[in-house]
Amino acid sequence: MPAFSIHFDGSHTTPERMTARAQELGIPVEALIHRAIAEHLGARFLPVVPASREPTNLSELSRPTVC
Predict the structure, then answer these.
(1) Confidence of residue 51 (pLDDT cuts 50, 70, 90)
(2) What secondary structure does DSSP assign to 3-65, as a single string?
(3) Measuring CA to CA, which residue among 21, 49, 48, 24 is closest to residue 33?
């Protein structure tokens, strides 16, 4: 799975504010980052991912999918 690293210099308060907000929501800070990216970029700037076709028989259901 692809991974991204985000680095802030020592004068940024963003990491502390993100940690505090994640604690308020009761979620890990990583989940907050995922949510922020999805909500900000997902609807406006990223291409729509087509819905996968549902299998119509047992052979299709057991076939491995390619991601």
Answers:
(1) confident
(2) -------TT--HHHHHHHHHHHHTS-HHHHHHHHHIIIIITTTSPPPPPPPPP-SHHHHHSPP
(3) 21
pLDDT for 40-49, tens place per residue?
887 678 777 6
Those residues whose C-beta lies under 8 Å from the C-beta of residue 25, and which sit 6 or more positions away, are 32
- Beta-carbon contacts of residue 32 (< 8 Å; ≥ 6 apart): 18, 21, 22, 25
Range 11-28 average pLDDT: 95
Stated pTM of the model = 0.61
